[in-house]
Each structure stands twice: as C-alpha cells, then as structure tokens.
Specification:
Heat Shock Protein 90; alpha+beta; 4 helices
C-alpha cells in the first residue's frame, strides 16, 4: 500500500461540494502557484490536472477536499496536492487512467497523470478516493 501524506493545518485547503467550488479552487490554485514561481506551460498543466481532480470529487465522489502546500526537495521546488472524497471509489484504477474515460477538460485522471510529475491513487476499502499529486517548477 502507498503511504500518502496527511493534510495538516499548515496546508491550504478547500472543500469541493458544488460546481462553483471547482472554479473557486482553480482561482485559488492559480494565485498560489504563481506566487511559487510557476509559469506556462507548467502552470496551465497543473491547473488542468487540479480541475480534473476537483470535478471528479464533485461529480463522482459527492464532494471532497483538496489541500496543497509548497514542497522543496533535492528535486527542486514544487507543489504537493491531496484530493479526498467519500464516493464509491474506483474499482479499476488502471482503466480510469486511460484516456477517454473522463468528461472534463483533459479527459479525466489520465490527463492529470500526464500533466503532473507524480500521481498516485488509492481507492479506500470503506469508500472514497485519495489522490496524491506533485508538480515541480
């Protein structure tokens, strides 16, 4: 089993319960990553990936939370994002990552995986999904 980081009080967090929350999240994320030094095309790639996760949480997971914080490692500076929902989860994650299975801007979770530097998905046995994503400057 993959070990996922835990969102703490030091992370920024936003609930995604309605369609307008997805837009609010994208605006907040845009400002955050610009302050970190992200520029296009990496900024746009990250925003598309985040929108895909938020839309999935809202549409398929009945809502959820997205939390994020800056990270600095030997690899450099970037952002780490966790998205959690309480929906039914995903039975076949490999299938969900294939192009064409989503309905959003970038064709779902496959787009989020391609547009980020790291993406891991855990479908919880008790229901719900946790997605861990990283993008580097």
């Amino acid at each position: 089993m993959i070990s996922f980081p835990v969102c703490t009080a030091s992370w920024a967090m936003m609930e995604v319960r309605h369609r307008h929350d997805v837009d609010r999240l994208q605006r907040a994320m845009r400002q955050f990553v610009r302050n970190l030094g992200f520029h296009d095309p990496k900024e746009t790639e990250l925003l598309i990936a985040v929108r895909e996760l938020a839309q999935n949480a809202w549409q398929h997971g009945g809502g959820g939370i997205v939390c994020w914080h800056p990270v600095t490692t030997a690899r450099g500076q970037g952002i780490e994002i966790i998205c959690k929902d309480d929906g039914p989860g995903i039975v076949d994650i490999a299938s969900a990552l294939r192009d064409g299975t989503g309905t959003g801007l970038g064709a779902g979770l496959g787009a989020a995986q391609r547009l980020t530097d790291y993406l891991a998905i855990q479908s919880r046995a008790d229901g719900g999904l946790i997605i861990h994503m990283q993008k580097w400057l």
